[in-house]
Each structure stands twice: as structure tokens, then as C-alpha cells.
Write a structure and sequence with these properties.
6-stranded mixed beta sheet, mainly beta, disordered N terminus, about 180 residues
Length: about 180
């Protein structure tokens, strides 16, 4: 399991249907990405892997939808920008999902930040076979006890979204 934290950010458009529960968030979008190159890792003891990937540049959404094919190399997540130009540090990102791994883990969390000058991205990428579990996956961001946003995705078998499943070049997983 690798949750990815972008160092760079790109412009995000608001996504209709995503609940913004806080005025602290100026913009929020969600979608599917192809996994980008990893340049390092950051400790994340409350995740199965124990760390998150660090990337140099946020990948673009290949689809701004909340249905995700369960394919190795595909990621999904959110881009958020804080209303305060100073941004929000010490944000807790929690990803809830169907049971995965030997322990049947359903919740993973890590520390992040939300920029106030451009959208910050965080996403989950399927790196291991045991992660490809269908069902509802939800990203929830909290800061100082306040929920900033919650965005849910429906992870589906690759055959349910064949064009999207093939978008990153992982056709062999469709058979």
C-alpha cells in the first residue's frame, strides 16, 4: 500500500457532489491517476506499509470520477486547496476501506498538509495484489479536530471500467 504525497501541485477544479464540510477548504477535486515515479518515502506508522511515497510532481487526473478500477499502478485521490493562503499543516488524512492485508485492516492514516496557494494532492495507489479490494474507499481530512472534507470512491473490478483500467497500460490484468 502506498499513499502518495505530492510535493508539487496543479490547478484543480471543484468537483460537484463532493461534500465540503469546512469553509477552510477553497477548492476540492477528486479522480483517478496513473502512478507517477517515486522519489522517496516518508514514515507513516499508521499505514500497512509503514510509509508513504513521495513524488516530485502531482500526476494529472486521467478521469475526474469516483469510480476506480482495481488495477495495480492505478491511483485515486483528492486535490485540495486551503482558504487561508498560509495553508493548513498537521492535517490527518484517513483512508477507510474494505478489509485488506493479513490483519484485515480497514483504516490507515498519516500526516499531511494542504497548501493555500495551490491544490495539494494526496492519493492511494494500488501497488500490491492484496490491496485490489472492491467496495467503498473514503478519504477524510481533519485538522485540529475539524473535518475538512470526506470523499468516497467506489473501487470496482477492472472489467467494469475497461477503458479506464487500460488507460495506464496495465491491460494484462483485465484477463
Amino acid at each position: 500500500m502506498r499513499i502518495l504525497l505530492g510535493i508539487a501541485a496543479v490547478i484543480a477544479l471543484p468537483l460537484s457532489g463532493v461534500a465540503q464540510s469546512s469553509d477552510a477548504i477553497a477548492s476540492l477535486s477528486a479522480g483517478v491517476v496513473c502512478g507517477p515515479p517515486v522519489i522517496g518515502s516518508s514514515p507513516a506508522p499508521d499505514t500497512i506499509a509503514g510509509s508513504t511515497h513521495i513524488i516530485a510532481e502531482d500526476p494529472p487526473f486521467i478521469a475526474e470520477i469516483r469510480q476506480v478500477p482495481a488495477v495495480i499502478g492505478i491511483g485515486f485521490g483528492v486535490k485540495a486547496q486551503a482558504s487561508d493562503p498560509s495553508g493548513l499543516s498537521d492535517v490527518t488524512m484517513t483512508v477507510t476501506h474494505p478489509p485488506i492485508g493479513d490483519a484485515g485492516t480497514t483504516t490507515q492514516s498519516y500526516r499531511s498538509w494542504v497548501s493555500g496557494t495551490e491544490p495539494s494532492m494526496t492519493f492511494y495507489q494500488f501497488d500490491e495484489e492484496y490491496e485490489r479490494v472492491t467496495g467503498t474507499w473514503t478519504f477524510t481530512a481533519t485538522h485540529a479536530g475539524e473535518e475538512l472534507f470526506a470523499v468516497s470512491f467506489d473501487v470496482v473490478p477492472p472489467q467494469a471500467l475497461p477503458d479506464l483500467a487500460a488507460a495506464c497500460g496495465y491491460l494484462d490484468l483485465l484477463s
